[in-house]
Specification:
Helix content: 10-25%
Largest sheet: 9 strands, antiparallel
Number of helices: 9
Order of helices and strands: HHHHEEEHEEHEEEEHEEHEEHEEEEEE
Radius of gyration: 25 Å
C-alpha cells in the first residue's frame, strides 16, 4: 500500500527570434545574399555536391545566415533583438536554440517506444521571395523513436494579416491541430491531464488548454517554439527526464527556482549529472544533490518528531496494522520556517522541472536494524479506494495522482537498506512472490547526499505498475538509514505554496 499522506546540458546553438523585427538591414543587401545562396545551391547540384539531405542542412544554415546578415553584425545586438517584440514593448526571453542534429537527437531518442513522449523538430524555412520567413517545417518522432520513413509537414502563414510578424503570424491553433493529428494526442479527460510542450531543458512552453490569443501571446508562443528548435511533447502534461538507455548520463544546471533565465540566481546555480539506472521502471540517480551538512540538518530537525510510520490502507486491508508492511519511523516536516528546507524545495523543483506547488510536505524516514517497508506503489489506484472518500476526493477520482518520487539518502548504509524495484527490466514477478522479497530486482544502495527519482505515472500520465518498490531491511547492527522524500503530484496541490 502507498505510504500515508500527511494529514491535511544539451548542446545549444545561437538564440534567434525569426520575425519581422529581424529584417533591420536594407532590402538590397538581403536580396543580394539570397541571390548568392541560390546560385551556390544550383552550382552544387550541378557538381553533385549536394544531395537532398545535405540540401536540408544547407537550407537551415542559410536561414540562420540570412537572419544574421539582415540584422546587426554584433552578437549582443542579435541577442537583444531576439528578446524584443515588434508588437509590444514587453520583453520576451526566448529559450536557447537546440537544433535537431544527430548528436542532439541522440540525447532524447530511445531504442524502444516510450508511449506518451514525443519529439518534434521545428524549423523556419528560407523564403527567397519574401522579406522574412513565415513557413515552418515539422518533423515528428512519435513515442521518442526514429520513424522508418521521415515525413515532414509545413505550415505557412497568410501574408497581409493584421498580425503579420514572421513566424509569429502563424496561428498556434493550426500548429496545435497538426501536433494532435500527427502524434495522436488525447484531449484532457476525467482521468487525463492536458498535454504540454517543453524545451529540451524541461522549460514549459505551452499546453493543450492554455489560453493563447491572437497577436502578441500567439507570436510569443510561435517564436518560443522556433527558438527552441527541438521540443518535447508529454501526453501526461508533466516533464519526465528521458531515460534514453540504461547508463545514459545527462548534465544539467540546477537553479533554486524554475526561472532558468533569471540572472539574479546565477550564484546559486550548479551543474549536476543525471544517470539512468533503469528504463522500466524509469529510475534516475543524482549524486551530491544534497551536501553532508544539509543531510545532517534534515535528520536533526526531524529527530524529535519521529513516530512509527502509517500507510494508506486499501479497502481490502481495512483494520490491519501498518506494521504488517512497514516498520520504519517517519515524520512530516514543513519547510516554511526553515530557509535550508525552503532552498531544497526549490532545488527539487528545478531538478524535476515541475513547479513547487506540485510537491507534498517533506517526509523524513528512519530505518533501524531489520526495519523495512515491503514493496508497494506510491500512486493511489482508484479501484482500491472506492470506500475511502477522502482519498477519492484528493485524487479527484483518478484525475490527479502522485506522479514522481524524489528520494533522498541522508546516510550511507554499509549493509542492507537498499531501495528495490522488483520489476526491473520489465520482468514479471516470480511465482510465489511476497512483497518483502529483496532478492531480485534493481537495488539502489543508500549513499549520503544522493537522490533518485522514480516515476509512478508514465509519460501518458497513466499509473505505471512497474514502479513497484520497497525498502530492504537494514542488516548492520550499528547502521541506521536516514532518508527523506518528496512526492510530486501530476497537478498543483495545496500541500505547499509555490513561492
Amino acid at each position: 500500500m502507498p505510504p500515508k499522506k500527511e494529514a491535511t546540458k544539451t548542446k545549444n546553438g545561437g538564440l534567434s527570434k525569426l520575425s519581422a523585427t529581424a529584417s533591420a538591414a536594407p532590402q538590397t543587401h538581403k536580396s543580394t545574399n539570397s541571390l548568392h545562396i541560390f546560385v551556390a545551391i544550383i552550382s552544387f547540384f550541378a557538381l553533385g555536391v549536394l544531395s537532398p539531405p545535405s540540401l536540408h542542412a544547407f537550407r537551415h544554415a542559410a536561414t540562420q545566415l540570412d537572419f544574421l546578415s539582415s540584422s546587426s553584425s554584433s552578437a549582443d545586438d542579435v541577442k537583444e533583438e531576439a528578446q524584443s517584440s515588434s508588437s509590444s514593448a514587453t520583453s520576451l526571453q526566448l529559450p536557447p536554440h537546440t537544433p535537431c542534429t544527430s548528436s542532439n537527437l541522440g540525447n532524447y531518442i530511445h531504442d524502444t517506444p516510450v508511449p506518451g513522449l514525443h519529439i518534434v523538430c521545428i524549423e523556419s524555412l528560407l523564403d527567397f521571395d519574401a522579406d522574412d520567413s513565415n513557413t515552418l517545417r515539422f518533423a515528428f518522432f512519435q513515442n521518442a523513436i526514429r520513424p522508418k520513413l521521415y515525413q515532414r509537414k509545413k505550415i505557412t502563414a497568410i501574408r497581409g494579416t493584421k498580425h503579420d510578424n514572421g513566424v509569429g503570424s502563424i496561428d498556434w491553433n493550426e500548429v496545435k491541430h497538426l501536433m494532435v493529428n500527427e502524434l495522436r494526442l488525447m484531449p484532457e479527460g476525467p482521468r487525463q491531464q492536458p498535454w504540454a510542450v517543453f524545451t529540451p531543458l524541461g522549460e514549459r512552453i505551452v499546453g493543450e488548454n492554455d489560453v493563447v490569443s491572437t497577436g502578441e501571446s500567439n507570436a510569443q508562443i510561435l517564436q518560443a517554439l522556433v527558438s527552441s528548435g527541438m521540443v518535447l511533447v508529454f501526453q501526461g502534461g508533466n516533464w519526465r527526464w528521458p531515460g534514453v538507455r540504461e547508463g545514459f548520463q545527462r548534465n544539467i544546471e540546477l537553479s533554486p527556482t524554475l526561472d532558468f533565465t533569471n540572472d539574479s540566481t546565477t550564484t546559486a546555480k550548479r551543474n549536476i549529472t543525471i544517470e539512468t539506472l533503469s528504463m522500466t521502471p524509469l529510475v534516475v540517480s543524482i549524486k551530491g544533490f544534497l551536501t553532508d551538512q544539509e543531510c545532517d540538518h534534515i535528520a536533526e530537525l526531524a529527530g524529535p518528531h519521529m513516530q512509527y510510520s502509517g500507510v494508506s490502507l486499501k479497502d481490502a486491508d481495512k483494520g490491519k496494522a501498518a506494521s504488517n508492511w512497514r516498520t520504519s519511523q517517519s515524520a512530516f516536516i514543513h519547510s516554511d520556517a526553515d530557509p535550508i528546507l525552503k532552498a531544497i524545495d526549490h532545488r527539487t523543483a528545478s531538478l524535476t522541472r515541475i513547479p513547487k506547488a506540485h510537491q507534498e510536505v517533506l517526509q523524513v524516514l528512519r530505518y533501524g536494524t531489520s526495519e523495512k517497508y515491503d514493496a508497494h506503489h506510491d500512486y493511489f489506484d482508484p479501484k482500491d479506494y472506492q470506500s475511502d472518500k477522502n482519498t477519492m476526493n484528493l485524487i479527484e477520482n483518478g484525475k490527479k495522482n502522485r506522479f514522481a518520487t524524489v528520494f533522498w539518502y541522508l546516510t550511507t548504509v554499509k549493509e542492507g537498506g537498499e531501495t528495490i524495484f522488483p520489476h526491473y527490466g520489465n520482468k514479471p514477478l516470480p511465482r510465489g512472490y511476497v512483497h518483502s522479497d529483496c532478492t531480485s530486482g534493481l537495488k539502489v544502495k543508500p549513499q549520503k547526499g544522493k537522490v533518485i527519482i522514480f516515476y509512478s505515472l508514465d509519460a501518458r500520465g497513466q499509473m505505471d505498475t512497474l514502479s513497484l518498490h520497497g525498502a530492504c531491511p537494514v542488516i548492520g547492527e550499528d547502521d541506521i538509514k536516514w532518508a527523506a522524500n518528496k512526492w510530486i503530484w501530476s497537478a498543483p496541490m495545496l500541500f505547499t505554496s509555490d513561492d
